[in-house]
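Figure 2 data, in text form.
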Amino acid sequence: MEVIPTPKCHAELAGEGVEYMWACSKNRYRNLSLKEKKGKDKFTEAVRKFLSVDVITLTQIRKFAKQARQYLIA
């Protein structure tokens, strides 16, 4: 395993668009109704659902990685 340090306070430089993926998951979670995420079990189930491969597809991952690389170039 290799650790590549990035500058502090620059989430965009975290690598391979991980911040964009996290934001995508958070946005989808926020669109759930309160009934669907109230309670520990429902919350855990919702979080796992929105962090799954079904929500963040390979195509999206590639787009986010491209976006992160373009940010680094600029």
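Caption note: Residues 30 and 69 are 27 Å apart (CA to CA).
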